[in-house]
Amino acid sequence: MTIPKPPILLSSLDLKRLEALLDKMPLAEAERHEALASELARAEVVEPAAIPANVVTMNSRVTFEDEATGDATTVTLVYPSAAGAAGTVSILAPVGSALLGLAKGQHIDWPTPDGHERRLRVLDISYQPEAAGDLHR
Fold first, then answer.
1. Which of 53, 61, 68, 99 is the most exposed place for a label (fewest CB within 10 A)?
2. Nearest one of 50, 80, 60 to 125, comparing CA atoms
3. pLDDT score, position 137
4. Residue 68 pLDDT
């Protein structure tokens, strides 16, 4: 059973950078990332200093659980140029788009590339740039 998507919070800096990323893509590629564009459109946007420390932002290190399996995974949410390193997930990956803007304890149902849905729940945010004062990441 799909639950309604939870409210999400984005920093104005992340929004600006992500919109620029999508705008630079060829149309066919951008259409593949419609889920991310949809998340950006529905987010509440605030200044970086107003982001609570318990919200997943770009370059945050987050631990989340797949509620179906109980498996916990820790990743750093990164821009595509930094993806591929161990422990990173691109914002363009379905799980990356799902995690952005969620607060600790929130969960979201998210479609996987194989057509299934996963329910993800944020367990912990061990690093968040805004909380650390690293706004020029």
1. 68
2. 60
3. 53
4. 87
Q: Which of 106, 137, 118 is nearest to 9 (CA)?
A: 106
Measure Cα distances from 119 to 26, 62, 91, 92 in Å. Answer: 30, 15, 17, 18
The kind and range of the H/E element at 25 are: none
**What residue ranges define each of the domains in the chain, with the CATH number in brackets?**
9-132 (3.10.50.30)
User: pLDDT-derived band of residue 122, with 50, 70 and 90 as boundaries?
Assistant: very high
Q: Which of 19, 110, 96 is nearest to 60 (CA)?
A: 96
Distance of CA 91 to the CA centre of its chain: 6
Q: What is the pLDDT of residues 94-107, one digit of tens each?
A: 889 989 999 999 99
